[in-house]
Amino acid sequence: MRVALKWFSRRSFSRWRGRIDGPHRDVHRYKYLLRRPIVAPIPPPHSSDVHPSLNPLCPPTARRISDHHHHPHLTHIDVERLCISGAVSEASRLLLDLHDRDAHLSLRSYNAVLRSAASAGDVSLSLEVFKDLLKTRLKPDSETYASVASAFTIDDDDHSESLRGLARDVSAIVGENPHALNRLMHAFAESGQTEKAIDLFEQMEGPDVVTYNTVLAALGEAGWVEKMLAVFARMEEGGPGPDIVTYNTVINGLRKAGRADLFGRLVGEMRERGIELELRTYTAVIDGLGRAGRVEEALRVFGEMKKRRVRASVYVYRGLIRGLRKAGKEELADCLEAEMKACASKLVGPWDFKRKK
């Protein structure tokens, strides 16, 4: 028997797994496999245990979840299967039913239903699932908010009432914390739905600094300068008060719109409030002044930044060089370009501007 085991280990296990510490280790492994109990395969569930919506042999009329009671054999995996099959309404009802029974749920299942609802353009279903998600211990991610926002892009209907009810219901679920609504507002802005982001902002109660910064960024990206300045004035009068992110956002929006004439007032307000200018502020101001042809002021701001020992970025040099060449000052532009190349390793790059999540 020992010789047979040794022959089996050398000829079979060695060919399958390679030579591993000689044949004796394979013999012990083979003995271990012989001692393992033989487990019979689990038979497939009876047809009565399978939910009708997942059983292809049942007629379509018998596949509706609303026509049946609780099914303990269904899990969150079945929700994803229903979404793949296109049964979005049945998947959402199953998901809500599992939540009511305190079953194990995953964010992946909620995102699957929200994606399917967004593809179908079902706004009411998307909002219902999103509000149910907020009642769980799961934390929505960027995909969650993007799916909810994309559900509004299918049609051009007026969803003001839906957004008003959403703001009211979310506030009742999560309390005074506006984090969820801020993320949803950002998702609206990212998908190009600036008007819906503004509508949601108007329906919020007690917006914080992040709320105002999100709205200001959306308005600046859309080029709505006057509306952005109005919201900024509203924030200064009765809001939480602007911070460094607020001023950077407004200045960057003005830079994109070519409104460099307002830079001086905003920079003066920052200094009055005791807010120090940072690299993002200098970058936006210098680039905006260079685009407007005000290169003398841009050079003065650049000298102030170097005097304060603020580490420069490639964007600052590029903005200055572009403005100088546009103004016809080629020699000064060449000097700055040579200076940029000489200290390229010490400059702040694009990766340094990415905010940590």
From TrEMBL:
<protein>
    <submittedName>
        <fullName>Pentatricopeptide repeat-containing protein</fullName>
    </submittedName>
</protein>
<feature type="repeat" description="PPR">
    <location>
        <begin position="177"/>
        <end position="207"/>
    </location>
</feature>
<dbReference type="Pfam" id="PF13041">
    <property type="entry name" value="PPR_2"/>
</dbReference>
<dbReference type="InterPro" id="IPR002885">
    <property type="entry name" value="PPR_rpt"/>
</dbReference>
<comment type="similarity">
    <text>Belongs to the PPR family. P subfamily.</text>
</comment>
<feature type="repeat" description="PPR">
    <location>
        <begin position="243"/>
        <end position="277"/>
    </location>
</feature>
<dbReference type="Pfam" id="PF01535">
    <property type="entry name" value="PPR"/>
</dbReference>
<dbReference type="InterPro" id="IPR050667">
    <property type="entry name" value="PPR-containing_protein"/>
</dbReference>
<dbReference type="InterPro" id="IPR011990">
    <property type="entry name" value="TPR-like_helical_dom_sf"/>
</dbReference>
<dbReference type="Pfam" id="PF13812">
    <property type="entry name" value="PPR_3"/>
</dbReference>
<feature type="repeat" description="PPR">
    <location>
        <begin position="106"/>
        <end position="140"/>
    </location>
</feature>
<feature type="repeat" description="PPR">
    <location>
        <begin position="208"/>
        <end position="242"/>
    </location>
</feature>
<feature type="repeat" description="PPR">
    <location>
        <begin position="278"/>
        <end position="312"/>
    </location>
</feature>
<keyword id="KW-0677">Repeat</keyword>
